[in-house]
Amino acid sequence: MYVQKPKTFIVDDEPDAAHLLQRLLGPFSLFGEVSVFTSATEAFAKIIEQQPAYLFLDVEMPELNGLHLSEKIKQHTPGTKTIYVTAFGHYALDALRQNAFDYLLKPVDRAELARLVDKLLVVNGAGGLPAQNSHLLIRSSEGVYQVKLDEIVYLEADCSYSTIVLSNGKKNSFEQQPGQNYTIASRKPVYTHQPQACG
Question: First vs last Cα of the chain: how many Å apart?
């Protein structure tokens, strides 16, 4: 069965900031096809027409304020989750009044983006994983990345470290702090890791 990829729109009058965010979102398949609009008025018609799943919206733009744009589209896009991305923290209360899904400050921090992805995965259900994608989100010292569940052959646990062994032979290791248990839930058998200190 064909499953349509979600659409994500970034609306920001600063092209460099918009394309940087586009690159940051790229590794996360739940955002699907990511499009950039540097004109809020141009984006307005496209948002109504294409109904993106996610809308990353700047606030201060010359043609149309991001808050006003959100107000104009909300009756037409009930399924769109709006995430404000701005350099100004004082708009947070206004964003909440607009029922924004989240609020990120520029420059976008990778840790904050990881927090947002975690939140979206939980809201999307399927044990915190988007059912149509079936990816595992991993945090490591090298950053945040996704692994396809179907590519996982097995997992190894050694003290507070876990290693994911993939079908292509690659291994990805990450650390869990003692006392922080986690469960990988998928269509495959459930794997639970309980980190223990080595004596």
Answer: 51
